[in-house]
Amino acid sequence: MKMKLIPAAILASMSMIGAAHADVTVYGLFDLAYGHTDGADDTVDFSRNSTTRLGVKGSTDLGSGIKGNFQLEAGNPQAVKGANEPFFNRQAWAGLAGKFGEVRAGTQDSVTFQTLIPYDLNYDSNRTAAADAAGVPTYGGQNTISKTTVMYISPDMSGFQARVSATQKGNNTGTDPRAKSMYALGLSYNNGPLSVGAAFETGSTDDTTSLRSNAFSGLGLSYDLGVVKVSGAAVNGGTTAAGLSGRGTIVGIQAPIAGATFGVQYAKNSDTQDTGTEFFANKEVLKNTTAYLDYGIKTPNVGAKVVTYSVGMIYAF
Predict the structure, then answer these.
(1) What is the Rg, in whole angstroms, of the alpha carbon atoms belonging to the chain?
(2) Per CATH, the architecture of 35-46+53-316 is what?
(3) What pTM was estimated for this model as a whole?
(4) Residue pLDDT, tens place only, 208-263
(5) Cα dist. 118→60, 171, 288 in Å?
(6) Are 264 and 279 spatial neighbours (Cβ–Cβ below 8 Å)?
(7) Cβ atoms 96, 144 nearer than 8 A
(8) Is 82 helix (H, G, I), strand (E, B) or coil?
(9) Which residues contact 303 (CB under 8 A, 6 or more apart)?
(10) What are the structural domain ranges in the chain?
């Protein structure tokens, strides 16, 4: 019954927004692929590279140089959601923007993710990301999406931009009795082919068996030479008494060849010595439609190597 009410609620909201002369956009991305992972059955499913999603976003002029913005986004129709997980589980925020920058409140990409994602050349492929294979938390010690977060994003100041956020106790850690509020800062600089980003995030729990108890810091750098683009990042998410590690590096290179993009990335966990290698290729074959091939190798310091690959198509609108 509740699911039947969702489309009607969206249409009603959009009609009210339209009356206020807002610019509203419905958008989406569908990723469908054939995939293989050693030791598992081959599949045809969604979101092997990018998360399949559907959303609506809008902006309206409130006067005095201020705009009201919002974004609602639901992700991956095949994912099994918990009983208390909201329908709009990827983005659900509203905010104000002007010469001062932008203020947002709600569920949104974390500061660390927004700051450091540019230094993964395959944008954290869901199944073959080198950093994930190596156990290197390239985008922060918490989830890449922060729930009920208040965030400030500064205006672009000659290439410099800052992001600051506060997430209330327990929003990222469920019922953890040791949860605490979390704060994050991201700084980035972009000037032509050069991009530099640095991020810091406090721990969100006093449970020392969890990596989330550690502060996280990361630094990324990329340079586009035209014929090739090189990128790298180093992160420190600390360790735990149980031997979990959040420290390591990722480096990568990509090149445009015959209208397609080819790249390779390598990541290593500096404590466990686990490594991940990722090869990728993609090409726009139709308008808004991209074909891709991802091939990942997980090489643990102890245990067997695991190969994963995906061949798929992404349609975005």
Answers:
(1) 20
(2) Beta Barrel (2.40)
(3) 0.88
(4) 888 888 999 999 999 999 999 999 999 999 998 777 899 999 999 999 999 999 99
(5) 29, 26, 21
(6) yes
(7) no
(8) coil
(9) none
(10) 35-46+53-316
